[in-house]
Amino acid sequence: MKVLIVDNDLKTLDYLGDIIAKEGFDISKAKDGASALKKYYEQKPDFICLDVVMPEIDGHDVCKEIRKTDPDTPIVFISSKADLSDRIAGLELGGDDYIVKPFDIGEVIARIRAVARRCIKSQGTKNIDDHFDLSNVRIFPNQLKAKKKDETIDLSLRDIKLLRLLYDHKNEVVNRDTLLDYCWGAHIMPESRTVDWHVSQLRKKIEDDPKRPEIIKTVHGIGYKYEE
Description:
Layout: E1 2-6, H1 10-22, E2 26-30, H2 33-43, E3 47-51, H3 59-67, E4 75-79, H4 84-92, E5 97-100, H5 105-123, E6 132-134, E7 137-140, E8 145-148, E9 151-154, H6 157-168, E10 174-175, H7 176-183, H8 192-206, E11 217-219, E12 223-225
Parallel strand pairs: 1-2, 1-3, 3-4, 4-5
Antiparallel strand pairs: 6-7, 7-8, 8-9, 10-12, 11-12
């Protein structure tokens, strides 16, 4: 899933990019309205995170231009303009959500996941299973969630990718390079310990005992496996 991030402040741009990339999305960045529109037409992202205050072409103008021909691509405004009138203006222009700077990481992740779920739903799920089971955990890819007994667990897109890969190769060892390529992308070159760290965090979400995992098992020196 592709996300276009637009922000006039380069530090915020990089910070948002890191947050959203860690969720497992493919990101593209633009630092002004003109380059945002250019990348939008070239790349057709699944949704857009859009700053409001930018020189020449501001976020509102970018949104209006996109909405002339595209009523569906979700647009999340991220702005330091916090007045209720500013929020209303953004939503009336066709924005789907409005996040105020300075923002909390947890809030951004929750809003982005909500947008992603809407994107998946609007694109249809005929190529996505409604659910699949790993031991006592039921995974719902199109909801970015899992259920274990009566507990509902929020998952990132990357969590879903990793669990799906292990499920599709049940009883087989999936090496770290394969996990990196599938879950992070062949164009990204994180260290292999990135996989180990992510698996350790995912185990905390889904395993009964993360220190003695029964779902994501380590195969030392190679990778991981799920045994059915």
